[in-house]
Amino acid sequence: MNDPYSVLGVSSNASDDEIKRVYRDLARKYHPDNFQNNPLADLAEEKMKEINEAYEAITRMRSGGSSSYSGTRSGGSSYSGGASGSSYGAGSSYAGGNMALYAQIRNAINSGHLDLAEHLLQQAPQNAEWHFLAGSIAYRRGWMDEALQQYNRACQMDPSNMEYRRALDYMQRAGVVYRSAGFPSMRSFGGLTATECCASLLCANCLCHGGC
Amino acid sequence: MFGYIRPFRDELKMRDFDRFRSAYCGLCHTMGRRCGPLSRLLLNYDFTFLAILLSAACEIPCRGTCRRCVVHPLQRRGCSEPSQALDLAADESMILAWWKLRDNVQDKAFFKGLPDRFGAALLRRAYRRAARNRPEFDAMTQQCLDDLRVLEQARSPSLDRTADASARLLAAAARSVPDENRMRVLEQLLYHVGRWIYLADAFHDRKKDAESGAYNPLLCCFPEGPDLGPEARERLELTMTHSLNLAGSAFSLLPEGPWSPVLENILFLGMPAAQTAVLADAWNPGRRRGVRE
């Protein structure tokens, strides 16, 4: 995978505009918003990284810079692969003493340990957060109808919580994320924060290099 | 249960039409070779989709030969070359079809179930051969069907849980793909395709099931009767569309290859069209709207 053009699937004499268009389409396709709380999110993230690096390599080559492709860092003009947003826990201060438990459950969901998450959830009181987490577990399993009902209940119990609202909204649009030109970054489910996301990107990076 | 997955013919390029047909013929020949001639009667578009998906995941090129067969003795037809992916699809199709047949036998009264019973008796040897080749898949299929039976007997009102058993069954078909990441992608894709088929079929059969008293998750979930209200229909449509979208996003993670256009056609046009037809009560499984083989 050394040729950045083949990564984007364009010919090497394509125009700048065409490359930009193809790049945008691909970035939209693999955007983390389309893989929220999805068991394949790590693969999409990797793909996004590849595309970003390829695009940057091409822009650098065309602007007369070095033509080396490997080892580029993403940044600047490319879409960032990670979701950013407020840190986990904001807006759910009522949860009080259960914060640590909730954080544990979110971690379990993020890492795909759904049985553990479900087990932990049994120890938590049945409040709005409970329904939200139950919905996230169901969603990760692919049980979208149950997830929708749970998110609905979470929103009814705590209508002011934006995270629940967004989750419900996502379900009501059948997982299709409409984006304006600016791609507003959205927070992913399960409380994945910007730092966590960076950490997981780094891990993915280590794995990639370790494997190759 | 079968028949919802087919290409949307109007939008299929001739080249991709030929590829689909050659995969269909290739799977037919492979089934005949591996499981005996009778197994070829079980061939359908859903299994062809599985064969193409496995070919795409294993990066099998679209090379083909021309062959004659019993159904088309006069004209030689393009036919995919034998491959690991076709072998896998043939065995798995045989196992799925056999258990579907057994399921029908168990569900029906003695006389009504006679044709299925007869078919099952004829195909027993073919099934045994396939099961010997893929013991894990066979075991997984039995497990999922047992889970489904338990839910059915409990008359579960959950759309997700009943669909889950059937979805896991199809997802297990991806297990033998050698590359781990592709296996994961395929598993997720097939899970949602299986879920979608189950829900489509539940909607299609709801009136028949209401009359016969058979279990149907929609009737248990929405007690208002087989003429589901607009809210119930909307809820079902939303969750089915969501499954299609998730299958689509999983598909986008597979490498682009010669099989991509036909798979895209099925996932993004054929299945949504089938969904619209099913939900409008206009689905006619006998009408061939896909590719005529």
Largest interface, counted by CB within 8 Å of the partner chain's CB: A-B, 24 and 26 residues
Total helices of chain B: the number is 10
CATH overall fold name of chain B: Farnesyl Diphosphate Synthase
> Spans of chain A of 5+ residues with little confidence (pLDDT < 50)?
67-95, 178-212
Shape designation of chain B = globular
The CATH superfamily label of chain B reads: Farnesyl Diphosphate Synthase
Overall pLDDT metric of chain A: 75
CATH architectural arrangement of chain B: Orthogonal Bundle
What is shown here, in short?
The complex is a heterodimer of chains A (212) and B (293). Chain A contains nine helices and no strands.
Tell me what you see in this structure:
The complex is a heterodimer of chains A (212) and B (293). Chain A is mostly helical and 212 residues long. Chain A folds into two domains: 4-85, DnaJ domain (Helix Hairpins), CATH 1.10.287; 93-172, Tetratricopeptide repeat domain (Serine Threonine Protein Phosphatase 5, Tetratricopeptide repeat, Alpha Horseshoe). Chain A is 56% helix and 0% strand. Chain A has helices at residues 4-8, 16-29, 41-62, 99-110, 114-121, 128-141, 144-157, 162-172, 194-211. Chain A is elongated, with a radius of gyration of 19 Å. The model of chain A is unreliable at 67-95 and 178-212 (pLDDT under 50). Chain B is mostly helical. Chain B has one domain (9-70, 79-279): Farnesyl Diphosphate Synthase (Orthogonal Bundle). Chain B contains ten helices and two strands. Chain B has helices at 14-35, 45-57, 84-107, 114-133, 135-153, 159-171, 180-212, 217-221, 230-251, 260-279, and strands at residues 64-67, 77-80. In chain B, strands 1-2 form a two-stranded antiparallel ribbon. In chain B, helix 2 runs antiparallel to helix 3. The longest helix of chain B has 33 residues, at 180-212. The radius of gyration of chain B is 19 Å and the shape is globular. Residues 289-293 of chain B have low confidence and may be disordered. The chains are: A mainly alpha (212), B mainly alpha (293). The A-B interface holds A 9, 29-30, 34-35, 38-40, 43-44, 47, 138, 141-146, 148, 171-172, 174-176 and B 158-161, 164, 167, 181, 184-185, 188, 191-192, 195, 235, 238-239, 241-243, 245-246, 249-250, 252-253, 256.
